[in-house]
Amino acid sequence: MIVTVQQHIMFEQRRRHPEARGRFSWLLSGLTLAAKMIEAKIRRAGINDALGSAGETNVQGETQQKLDVYANQALLHCLGVRDSVAALVSEENEEPLVFDPAPETGEYIIVFDPLDGSSNIDVNVNVGTIFSILRRPPGPVTNAILQPGHQQIAAGYILYGPSTVLVYTTGDGVFGFTLDPAIGAFVLSHNHIQLPHQGNLYSVNEAYADTFPPAYSQHFATLRSKGYSSRYIGSLVADFHRTLLKGGIFFYPPTHAYPGGKLRLLYEANPLAFIAEQAGGRATNTNSRILDIPPTDIHQRTPLIIGSLSDVTAFSC
Ligand code: AHM
Ligand code: MG
To answer: Could you report the per-residue pLDDT of 99-157, keeping only the tens digit for each?
Structure first.
């Protein structure tokens, strides 16, 4: 018998929080609806005038693709109508969208990257959506957004690839679901995902090697001498998904262009770090566990080293 993501969320909620009123499940159903809308648009991208630039730059100074704009609107639309949402924070919006409904209803803050890796869209390479869910503590919503990653109550991503896969955790294991286009539902396909303790792949954009801190390049030479192979897609969700299933290590080090790292803490590093740890892996910025970094800005960046426990632990600089 199949288990859909909606059923899985409800079973898990009943098992772990029998007192819950279903608001969290309702919230996640908004995310899966948006994911299906984005998936449908991407699936026909070459024939529905959805490719190419939207002609704007976002808060990161990056060119927005038409699909970045569509994905952002789909998420804002599907989540913004849920009264359990106190605020939405998107890579594509400079400021958070604060709804500030009564604290007893607006319990959650959702932080997301609507379409990660969007520079790959035009060449039909995998892209993804990443999300992180925070509980709103008492008090003004704007003060509640900058929470360290260990306070996430759920995180996940949707990978739009040859098949569309949703992976999520609520802090009790990691589960993967594959979209069955025949029934329009995400069906459990990867139960209790465990990151292999050690892998034999490393993943980094080595074109920037001359500008990495020296310890990185030395470590890559060590990995090569041990027989590691290299994989780099340039879409974080896809590179992470491979690492989650096959093991190994992904790096986005400080570079000349991004001395503080390129990837964003709140909606890229934190959700993936939560998933990696829940699957038995590890994520650091070399100085600190990613989930312990105190955020100071919603769009702040961080170096990211993430993957198999043994591989991440072996890298120190
Ligand atoms: P984006 O959120 O603007 O798409 O940028 C993030 C992407 C990640 O998916 C990927 O890991 C990284 O940028 C690739 O960067 P680079 O092209 O510098 O290797
Ligand atoms: Mg991104």
So the answer is: 877 777 788 999 999 999 988 888 999 999 999 999 998 888 888 899 999 999 999 99
Query: Domain 201-314 classified CATH 3.40.190.80?
Result: yes
- pLDDT value for 106: 85
Residue of 15, 21, 23 whose CA lies nearest to 172: 15
What fold, for 5-190? Fructose-1,6-Bisphosphatase; Chain A, domain 1 (3.30.540)
Could you tell me if 109 and 92 are in contact, meaning their C-beta atoms sit under 8 angstroms apart? no
Ligand that comes closest to the CA of residue 58? 1
The predicted pLDDT at position 118 comes to 85
Any ligand 1 atom below 6 A from CB of 117: yes
- As a whole number of angstroms, the distance between CA 257 and CA 211 comes to 9
The domain segmentation of the chain, as residue ranges, is 5-190, 201-314
The rounded distance, in Å, linking the Cα atoms of 137 and 140 is: 8
pLDDT of residue 12: 86
Residues with pLDDT less than 70, the chain: 56, 58-61, 317
Pairing of strands 229-230, 201-203: parallel
Ligand 1 pocket, mutate which of 59, 211, 242, 252 (most atoms under 8 A from CB): 252
For residue 16, the model assigns a pLDDT of: 82
DSSP helix/strand/coil, 114: strand
Nearest CA to ligand 1 atom 4: 117
Q: In terms of Cα–Cα distance, which of 85, 45, 47, 87 is closest to 68? A: 45
- CA-nearest residue for atom 17, ligand 1, is 234
C-beta neighbour count of 123 within 10 angstroms: 7
Q: Which atom of ligand 1 is nearest to the CA of 60?
A: 3
